[in-house]
Amino acid sequence: MPSRKFADGEVVMGRWPGSVLYYEVQVTSYDDVAHLYTVKYKDGTELALKESDIRSQSSFKHRKSQSSSSSPSRRSSSRSRSRSRSPGRPARGRRRSASQSREHKDDKKKTIQETSLALPVFVLFKPSENNTKRYNGEPESTEKNDTSCIILEQKLKPDLEVKRVLEQYSLRSRKDDKKKEEIYSEKKTFVAVKPIEKVSTKTKELEFGGRIGTFMLIFLLPATVFYLLLMCKQDDPSLLNLPPLPALESLWEGSVFGIFLLWFFLQAVFYLLPIGKVVEGLPLSNGRKLQYRINGFYAFILTAAAIGVLLYFQFELHYLYDHFMQFAVSAAVFSLALSIYLYVRSLRAPEEELAPGGNSGYFIYDFFTGHELNPRIGSFDLKYFCELRPGLIGWVVINLAMLLAEMKIHNLSVPSLSMILVNSFQLLYVVDALWNEEAILTTMDITHDGFGFMLAFGDLVWVPFVYSLQAFYLVGHPTTITWPIAAAITVLNCIGYYIFRSANSQKNSFRRNPADPKLANLKFIPTATGKGLLVTGWWGFVRHPNYLGDIIMALAWSLPCGFTHILPYFYVIYFICLLVHREARDEHHCKQKYGLAWERYCQRVPYRIFPYIY
């Protein structure tokens, strides 16, 4: 095992990932397994670096002094050689004017070169004042708009064009150019290094209770789904009234599993249709961007047309209600098989394609959280497909089946007002997600979490069978509400939806194009990673306003079920726990990623989800 070169607490020069710039850092720890140093920058950012990306401070000072000492001698020798007269030299008067002209151009070129050399550094870190200015000894600015960097870049473009022309028509000899190149290359050796290599690290901090917690969740999640569905079937769905266990043979039916497979592959066919635009996702750790076809809304329209054809030919859609438990079991079996396939194929995936949160080396943990970040079969992205298509669209189909089942069982000519509200609210939520499908590319599920049992079971089982719990409950436990109460619940849902949609749109627009003139009024705190933390708009109100809107909508979905039992409120209780846990994950990741900038953001925006409460 190679011995470490730098000790803990030693102040060295560390390269900033994705650039050729070195900054003063302090070594905090060393991983003997991965052979990586954990270093801390002056702004509080902590990163893991290879030993090849770290250099001692003395080596930098030595190279800089060597470069400066060699430059004058080279310039003087160049001047002495230029005094020798060539046979084709013009007369003295013209020679003096030409020399003055060349000196004027050289001065201008030198100025342009200095400006152009500063440009890459500025562009690379354009939103990160708390990074570059701190190291350059300049005062920090807490907030800024992001249009100034673009204006400066536009101002420098004419100068760069002049530089190109001067280089093309320069009157100096190629020897002088070569000498100048040598001098320039020596001067920049203290920042220029070999091409950037991918730093791969194991997942050190385990979430969800680590190996024991994830092992228990693999059994607890399916058990919770089946318990909730059995409770809804009872006449008295009280918490203390435990449902009897059904016979095992009653939980499985081959025809039901076949219908589920048909549904899954039908959505896959819709996904592969060459309709809708193709967009790029956020850059991966290696800088590559994956392409995604945005056609979820078209898939929803085609599904609605297919359901309409089935109803026209008098297909009994309430068949879903009669075999609801069997459909849930079929979906659970399929998600387990899919999870096993995903883990097996991830064992052959390159290191750079593994999920940052699912590369612990522990089988159970990686199987649950997802080992591979973006598993694909050709251009078919499995995680992105399952995130919105089979489960989310299936949720709407299940709600419709429950509405038809309520009408048939209770001999109603029209659905109850409670059922209409639940179906309408949740239909709006699904249509909004599919219409704004591109926004999901910036979520943690896509950018951070791997595709394993957690997301496979969540997308294919939890979403369609737990999120439709209110509609399933109303079939067996009809609830009557008045029109004023219905109007109040509708207003509450609209408030939640407005907060949810406007906050997400604001965030996604800023992430996609911070320089958009429409966002010029937004202020943000720059970070060392090049990204900004919004401190105005909804994101200056609470840190996760989209979570707040989500919770308000979840409450509005449960209220039409009345207050007789707590069972239909399981969704809103679960959702609060889920989002609080997700907020804690976000908090931890952002603190590591943004360092001191995140602390300033938390001081500026103290409330996490609920204003003045939490």
Would you kindly provide a brief summary of this structure?
With 614 residues, the protein is of the alpha+beta class. Helix content is 56%, strand content 7%. It has helices spanning 57-82, 92-124, 129-135, 148-168, 174-187, 210-233, 254-272, 296-312, 319-322, 324-346, 363-369, 382-409, 417-435, 444-447, 453-466, 469-476, 483-512, 545-558, 570-594, 596-604; strands at residues 11-15, 22-31, 36-41, 46-49, 54-55, 277-280, 291-294, 376-377, 380-381, 524-526, 532-534.
Widest sheet: strand order? 4-3-2-1-5
Q: How many distinct helices?
A: 20
Q: What integer value in Å does the Rg equal? A: 31 Å
Q: Number of domains in the coordinates? A: 3
Describe this structure in words.
By secondary structure, this protein is of the alpha+beta class. It contains 20 helices and eleven strands. It has helices at residues 57-82, 92-124, 129-135, 148-168, 174-187, 210-233, 254-272, 296-312, 319-322, 324-346, 363-369, 382-409, 417-435, 444-447, 453-466, 469-476, 483-512, 545-558, 570-594, 596-604; strands at 11-15, 22-31, 36-41, 46-49, 54-55, 277-280, 291-294, 376-377, 380-381, 524-526, 532-534. Strands 4-3-2-1-5 form a five-stranded antiparallel beta sheet. Strands 6-7 form a two-stranded antiparallel ribbon. The chain has a two-stranded antiparallel ribbon with strand order 8-9. The longest helix has 33 residues, at 92-124. The protein starts with 10 loop residues before the first strand and ends in a 10-residue tail after the last helix.
